[in-house]
Structure formats: C-alpha cells, structure tokens
Design the sequence.
C-alpha cells in the first residue's frame, strides 16, 4: 500500500505543476498571482506530507514551522502585488 | 477496513485539491478565480489537519484563505468583467506543457527517491528531544521562536517590507458605504469575541496549536470587520501609534536578541530559565505588528497625513542641488 | 560588540525601523548606520583573514537544529564590496531625491534592502536563504516602484512575479533536499550529499530558481526594464548587488555544497548559457538607445562571464590553478559591482542634468559634466577589462584557465564580449565628447559625483593594484578549495 | 449503542449537507439557492455537531463545539441576509 507521505507529496507536486504552468501561461497579473499562490501551496504540501509520521507519532515540527513562515511570506507578497496593481490601474485611468 | 476508508478519504481530498487548483488556474474570470482560490485554501486547511499539522490548519484558514481572500476580493471589487485574453501561440503552449510535465516527473522521481533514502525522522527526533529546553511545549512554537527564531525575525521584516510598499504606493481606499444595521449589531459582539480569541491563541501557542501569526491574523480580521462597519473609524487613528505598532514586533525581537548576545554570546540565545517569558514577550509584540500590517494591507494604502507631516512641520532638509 | 556578523545584519534592520519611526532625521540615520555597518563588515574581513572562516550559531543551538551564520573569504569580500557600494550609493541618494515624500519612502526600504543583502551573504541555511531571497526580492521591487511612472510599475510587477516564481522553484528544491537528507544546514549538507538522483533533481530546481533571479541568459528578459526604470541609486544597487547575490548562492551550491553532484555536462551547459549572455547582452547594450538601458544590458553580459567560470573551475584539478581561477571569479564580481554602480550613478547625474539619458543626444556632456564623463570612462575601462582595472587581471586569468583546462572555446567568447564592451563604451563617450550646445557653465555636483568617482576608482585602481592582497585572502580562507 | 446512534445522526447531517449542495447547483436563481444552502447546511451542521458531541467525553470540547455551531449559525444567517439584500438592491443575480 502506498504511504500517505508519497500520496500527498505527489499531490503537492501536481498542484505545484498546475500552478507553474498557469504562471507561465497567464499574462494578466491577477491570474498569475493566483497561479503563483497555488504553486506555493504545492510546495508547502510537499513539506507537510513528508513531515507526517503516521497516526501514532507526532509529526516533524520543522517543516510545519517552515511552511508557517512560507504562508506569511506568501500573503505579504500578495498584498504588495495587489498594491502595485492598484497603483498601475490608477495611472492607467488618469 | 479502516485503512481502506482512510485511503478513500485521502484520495477524495487529493482529487478535490487538484480539481480546485486546476479551476483556480484555468479560469480567466477574476471573480471566479478568487472564489475558487478561497475554496482551495479552505480545503488545504483540511489537508493540513489531516496531516497532523493543526498549527498550519489554523494559519491557512485565517491567513491563506481568510486574509488573502479579503485582500483579493477588495482588489477585484472595481474590476471590469471583460478580460482581454491574449492566447499564447500553440507552440509556446506546448513548450510550457512539456516543461511542466518533465519537471513534475523529475520531482516525482526525486521525492520517491528521497523517501527511500530518508529514515523518516529527519530533524524530528532531534527537535522533539530539545523541546523541553526551549521554554515552550508546542514543538512548532519551539522551532519558530527558539530554534529557528532568526527565520521568524526575517519573516517579520518581509511583512514590514510589504506593508511599506503598500503604504508608499497608494492612499487608503475610501469607497465604503455605511454598513447594514444587522451587520453592525453582529460586529458589536463579534469583534470583542475575536479580540479575546486572538489573545487566547497567542497565549495557548506555548503548549498547543496557535501563536503570534494566527493571533495576529485574527486580530487583523477584527480590525478589518471594524473598518467595514464603521468606515470613518480609521480617520481618527493616531499615526504615531500606527508607526509604533508596525515596528514594535521587530524592535522587541532584535532588542531581545542583542541583549541575549551580550549575556550569552549568541544572538537570540535565550537564558533557559527565561526563555518561556521572552518568547511570550516577543510573540505579543509580533502579534500587534502582524495585525496592524495585515489591516493596512487590506485598507490598501496610507491614511491621510502619513507622509505630508514632514513638509508641514519643518522645511527640513533641502534637495541639496540645483543651486 | 562581539560578533560583526550579527551586527552587519541587525544594524541596517534597526536603522530601517528608526527611519520609519523618525522620518525627519532619516537621511542622517541612514548615512550613520551604513558607515558603521561598513566598519563592521571590515572587522569581519579582518577576522576571516586572521582566523579563517567564521561561524556564529544563532541561539546557541548547534547548526543542524538551529541556523548558523557563516562567513568565509568569498562571502566576506562580497560583503565588503556590497557595503562599500551601498554606503557610497547612500551618500549619493541623500542628494538624489529632491522630493521630501519620496525620500521618506526611500529610506526604510533602502535599509531593508541592505539587511537582505547582508543576511543573504552570511546565511548558512537553505530555508533561511529562501526567506532572505524573498526579503531581497520584495524590497528591491518596492524600491523599483518608487519612480512612479507606468513603465516602472509595469517593470516592477513583472520583476515581482518573476522573483516570486524563482524563489518558489528554489523552495521546491529545498523541500526535496529536506525529504531525502533531513538537513537544511549547508555545511552538514555538503558532508552528507552524494551523486544520486535526488541531489541532482534538487540542484536542478534550486539552480533554475536562482538562474531566474540572477537573470542568466534565457531568463534575462525581466532585468533591463526593471533596472533601467528604477531611480538611479536603486538601479545601482540592483545591478551591482541584487543579481549578484543570487549568483553567489549558485556559486556556493555548485562549487561548494554540491560539488560531487556536478557533472561536466551540466557545468558546460551553464557555461554555454553564460557565453550566450555575454554575446547577447553586449550586443543589446551596443544597440541600446538610453544610457541606463545600456548599463542594464551590460549587466546581463557581465554576469555571463561569471557563469563561464563554473565549467572552468569544475574542470580544473584541485590546487593552485583552481584557486587562481576562483580568485579571478571573485575579482571580476567585485570589479563589476563597483564599475556598474558607478555607471548607474553617473547615468543618474546625466539624467538629472539633461532631463533625459538618450545616448544620441548626449553631445556636450563632456564639457558640462567633465567629472561625470570621466567616471563613465573609468567604469567603461573596468567593463571592457583594460588595465589597470581588476577585470583586466580577472579576464586574463579566465583566458589562462581556459587554456589550462583545455576549454579553448571560451576564448573567442571573451574576446568578442570585450570588443563589444569597448564598442558600447566608446559609443557613449563619442557622443559625450561630441560638439554640442553645452549651455551653461561647467558643473560639478560633488555630492553625487564623489560617491560615483570613489566607486569607479575602486573598480579600476584599487582592485587592479590591490589584487595581490585579494589573492592571498581568497586562497587562504576559502571553504571552496579546502585551502 | 450510543456509537450507532451518533453515527446515524452524523450521517443524517451529511445527507442535509449534500442536499444543500445539490440545491446550490440545481436551483434556478440566487434566492432559492441561498434558501437551500442556509437552511440545509445549518441543519446539517447542527446534526453533525450533535453527533460528535455524543461521542466526545471531554466536556470543555463539547462546549467549544456548541460555540462553533452558534457562531456558524449567526454568520450564515447574517451573510445570507446581506447577500440577499445586496441582490435586491440591484446587484447582479447571476454568478
């Protein structure tokens, strides 16, 4: 039977690839931003999948801490990208 | 029997995650994309819970789906529906597809090989053995604020940088209409509840899932709700306080770190009998900074008077050239 | 006062907070703190010179569990270069921004950029590298967006999404490393790593992410727009430092940590990309119509040279020859850092004075701005690789290494690149010295020109004449060669 | 015995949820969708909360579950109200 780690890690790779493909394809900022966030979620899922150590054991806390950092970094980057987008729209409207 | 049930549930979750990821990425309609993305974030929180990462499930629900969702929805509020979609030439599209598939295959191979190679423990045993020394009992908090506290410090710097960018780029959004009475009634008891819950999360982070980031994000959502109900509430805000709140997290963190360097030679090397209290102090300060940062990110820019006070109070430093 | 490594990261960070809290005195705080930080970076070099590579285990946790700061000759010399460029540019920037509000926006972000660069150069941990990369990327984008016109905003949006993509791909590689080895610390990883599929896949991912960020040839498309549209001091830092520190991680990974994994074919591939960057970047620089765009394309080319060193170094046997090639690489990186920042700063002066930086309309600049023209010429000398600049010695050693490792095919690339560099430099100078209506008197803008002149002199004279000292320093204190 | 009862109640909750979701997809306009979703989901949530509470020995956790249920109830009632009111006042009715 396939282990949960491999199963979810492969899912993470799948999500990463979907996001990566969309990042490369989309021209428009917001779609690209969503794609980048999906892409990041895939990487996070790989980390958390391999941190899982079965029903009985505590999971590895290091990847959890790393991903928590990653989530906060991702939301900061998103806030900044949206601010840039807003400014550009304002300039375009003028 | 239960094993197969788990496998079935896992596969369902994975399939849903992949589908939502695909839908988020495939649509050209911003509104749909954002909606799918929020749903994706919530499902991801479920996946974190499944993989025994409750700290992350909390963080993802509050930050990943909640705050990001709010930011995105606020951003697309005034978008036109019609999106001009210029399609890639099909050769380029196929190259991208090929690249992605090749990379995914490589990564799959790498992960498979990596799982074979590893003993499955990695740093876990080492970290768990040291957790009693760290001053807290929640291992994730121990890693975040003691073993790898430096990462967390730089992460706060990342948050501050993003907020500085938001503050420099735009003035605050001012298009809010007065809220429904029913929403205001709800908020009058929901906001205090959120504040209390956020304090609880901060406190409980020492020994159970929770901590500064979850607490900060929750506090930020309280601020955002307040803004939705009372659009004028922020015009009275004291700008010096706002500056103070933004920097207090890093300032306390660095001060503690440097103080410990004088006492114990290593930057952030807490004296072990004090580490619990030091971590709580740092986390409290960080909660305020994160909350104010996320709230400002939602407001979309600087409040009135953020920049102009220098010109009004002093002629200051002249340009220094063209003379 | 016991550890300069901590101080060079914490001082700019603290300064950034103070400038935010007290914007009225921002420029004094910025200048003061960057000078002190520069002093600490020199202390660090002194320590490395006397005591070999330095380690600081943060939080008193051993490096596997916690994070370690590390400095060896490579990171220490890049750090000093970064701080010199940064300090000079800080003095320049103090005079550059005339708008009060803009200056207020500039300082906290600028010091945050310095924090990120220093933290990245000293980081000894893979995930920590990711966080510093993000800090670097976000502060660089925010600074680019400071010149708030449409072109700059479009460039910075592109810069941001490309940067995020790069760091995510890098992070995916880190995830694979942690999967297989359970290690994030670079030194422990170097002991543990073997030539196996996992390591190769992970290295491919991490390098791909970093190549995007350091704008190696096929991934260079975002760089010229971003670097050319940012305010001049920001462009100087972006071109001289920001792309270079991503390249520093690539070097660290390829030559130090993953050296057993590297195959000659992969080294050759990255070298070929570097060669393509040299030719393409120089050609585009020659065709560029604006001075800042020329400088940006020239960055693409100059980074290419640094990548050509990778197949040479991995192709040489351990020992004297390899050390020499490696030192030449460092020398070239340092020289380019100084020369390119000087060029961007002078371009900023020209732009302020003339209101534009179109190369074709520069006629008369040499009379109106003699010192600035001189600085442009000096940086040109370093970019071409004429004596006595540091890059002359570096390129000489690059040719020598090509011969020693029997990879003669790099020689025509270097020759072509240098000829093209000479062509684009003389094109600018030719226009600048041309007869023109240089209305007005001779101008010296000391506060802007002196920092630029200092940097240009470092590139051409100090590094050229002082290269022997650098040679000793690198070959005795590098982790790379095991010396 | 209590296990089987709890399981039945939880399954009942799942049934209500599914009905609500089918309603969301199949019903023709915003108001009936909203109706189906809020009614069915609240009932479903109540049943699932009840079922889990029966299985849970820890009293504090039961209290927390009830709190979750109440909060969800308030949130869904108010958000449905807001969506409906927005739609009535001239917002878009389609998705």
Sequence:
């Amino acid at each position: 039977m396939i282990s949960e780690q491999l199963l979810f890690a492969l899912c993470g790779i799948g999500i990463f690839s979907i996001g990566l493909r969309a990042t490369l394809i989309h021209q428009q900022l917001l779609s690209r931003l969503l794609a980048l966030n999906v892409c990041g979620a895939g990487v996070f899922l790989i980390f958390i999948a391999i941190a899982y150590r079965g029903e009985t054991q505590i999971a590895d806390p290091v990847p959890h801490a790393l991903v928590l950092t990653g989530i906060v970094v991702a939301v900061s980057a998103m806030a900044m990208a949206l601010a840039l987008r807003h400014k550009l729209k304002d300039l375009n409207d003028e | 029997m239960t094993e197969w049930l788990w496998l079935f549930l896992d596969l369902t979750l994975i399939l849903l995650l992949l589908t939502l990821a695909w839908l988020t990425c495939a649509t050209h309609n911003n509104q749909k994309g954002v909606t799918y993305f929020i749903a994706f974030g919530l499902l991801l929180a479920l996946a974190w819970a499944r993989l025994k990462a409750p700290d992350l499930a909390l963080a993802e629900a509050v930050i990943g789906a909640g705050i990001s969702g709010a930011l995105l929805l606020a951003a697309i509020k005034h978008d036109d529906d019609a999106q001009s979609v210029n399609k890639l030439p099909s050769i380029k599209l196929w190259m991208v597809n090929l690249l992605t598939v090749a990379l995914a295959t490589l990564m799959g191979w790498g992960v498979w090989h990596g799982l074979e190679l590893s003993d499955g423990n990695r740093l876990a045993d080492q970290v768990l053995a040291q957790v009693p020394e760290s001053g807290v009992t929640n291992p994730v908090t121990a890693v975040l604020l003691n073993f790898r506290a430096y990462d967390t410090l730089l992460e706060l710097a990342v948050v501050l940088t993003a907020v500085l960018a938001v503050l420099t780029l735009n003035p605050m959004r001012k298009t809010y209409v007065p809220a429904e009475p029913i929403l205001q009634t709800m908020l009058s008891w929901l906001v205090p509840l959120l504040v209390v819950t956020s304090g609880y999360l901060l406190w409980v982070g020492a020994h159970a899932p929770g901590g500064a980031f979850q607490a900060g994000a929750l506090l930020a959502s309280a601020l955002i709700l307040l803004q939705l109900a009372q659009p004028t509430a922020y015009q009275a805000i004291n700008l010096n306080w706002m500056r103070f709140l933004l920097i207090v997290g890093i300032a306390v963190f660095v001060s503690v770190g440097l103080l410990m360097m004088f006492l114990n030679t290593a930057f952030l090397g807490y004296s072990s009998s004090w580490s619990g209290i030091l971590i709580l102090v740092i986390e409290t300060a960080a909660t305020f900074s994160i909350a104010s940062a996320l709230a400002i990110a939602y407001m979309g820019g600087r409040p009135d008077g953020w920049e102009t006070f220098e010109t009004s109070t002093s002629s200051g430093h002249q340009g220094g050239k063209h003379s | 006062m016991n550890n300069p490594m901590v101080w060079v990261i914490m001082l700019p960070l603290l300064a950034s907070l103070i400038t935010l809290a007290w914007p009225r005195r921002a420029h004094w705080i910025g200048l003061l703190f960057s000078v002190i930080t520069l002093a600490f970076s020199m202390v660090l070099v002194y320590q490395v010179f006397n005591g070999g590579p330095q380690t600081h285990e943060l939080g008193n946790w051993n490096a596997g569990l916690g994070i370690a700061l590390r400095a060896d000759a490579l990171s220490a010399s890049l750090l000093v270069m970064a701080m010199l460029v940064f300090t000079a540019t800080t003095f320049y920037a103090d005079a550059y921004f005339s708008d009060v509000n803009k200056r207020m926006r500039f300082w906290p972000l600028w010091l945050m950029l310095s924090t990120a660069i220093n933290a990245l150069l000293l980081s000894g941990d893979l995930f920590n590298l990711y966080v510093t990369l993000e800090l670097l990327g976000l502060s660089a984008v925010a600074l680019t967006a400071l010149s708030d016109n449409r072109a700059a905003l479009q460039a910075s949006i592109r810069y941001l999404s490309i940067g995020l993509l790069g760091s995510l791909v890098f992070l995916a590689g880190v995830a694979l490393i942690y999967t297989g080895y359970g290690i994030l610390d670079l030194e422990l990883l170097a002991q543990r790593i073997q030539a196996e599929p996992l390591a190769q896949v992970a290295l491919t991912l991490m390098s791909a992410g970093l190549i995007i960020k350091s704008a190696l040839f096929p991934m260079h498309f975002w760089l010229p727009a971003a670097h050319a549209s940012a305010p001049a001091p920001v462009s100087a830092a972006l071109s001289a430092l920001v792309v270079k520190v991503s390249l520093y991680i690539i070097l660290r990974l390829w030559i130090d940590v993953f050296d057993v994994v590297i195959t000659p074919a992969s080294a050759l591939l990255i070298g070929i990309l570097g060669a393509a960057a040299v030719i393409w970047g120089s050609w585009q620089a020659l065709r560029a119509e604006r001075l800042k765009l020329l400088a940006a394309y020239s960055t693409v080319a100059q980074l290419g040279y640094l990548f050509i060193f990778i197949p040479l170094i991995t192709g040489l046997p351990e020992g004297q020859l390899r050390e020499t090639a490696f030192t030449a690489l460092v020398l070239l990186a340092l020289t380019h850092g100084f020369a390119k920042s000087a060029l961007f700063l002078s371009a900023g002066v020209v732009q302020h004075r003339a209101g534009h930086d179109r190369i074709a309309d520069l006629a008369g600049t040499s009379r109106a701005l003699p010192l600035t023209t001189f600085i442009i010429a000096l940086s040109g000398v370093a970019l071409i690789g004429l004596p006595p600049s540091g890059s002359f010695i570096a390129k000489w050693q690059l040719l020598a290494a090509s011969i020693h490792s029997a990879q003669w095919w790099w020689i025509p690339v270097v020759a072509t690149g240098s000829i093209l560099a000479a062509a684009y430099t003389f094109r600018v100078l030719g226009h600048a010295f041309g007869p023109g209506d240089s209305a007005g008197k001779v101008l010296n803008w000391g506060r802007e020109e002196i920092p630029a002149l200092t940097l240009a002199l470092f590139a051409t004279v100090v590094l050229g004449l002082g290269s022997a000292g650098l040679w000793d320093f690198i070959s005795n204190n590098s982790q790379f060669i095991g010396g | 015995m209590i296990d089987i009862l709890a399981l039945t109640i939880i399954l009942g909750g799942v049934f209500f949820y599914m009905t609500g979701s089918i309603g969301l997809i199949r019903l023709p306009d915003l108001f009936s969708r909203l109706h189906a979703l809020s009614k069915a989901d609240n009932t479903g949530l109540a049943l699932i909360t009840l079922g889990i509470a029966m299985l849970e020995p820890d009293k504090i956790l039961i209290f927390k579950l009830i709190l979750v249920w109440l909060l969800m109830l308030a949130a869904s009632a108010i958000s449905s109200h807001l969506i409906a009111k927005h739609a009535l006042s001239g917002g878009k009715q389609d998705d």
About this structure: Residues 281-483 of chain C form one domain. The first strand of chain C starts at residue 54 and ends at 57.
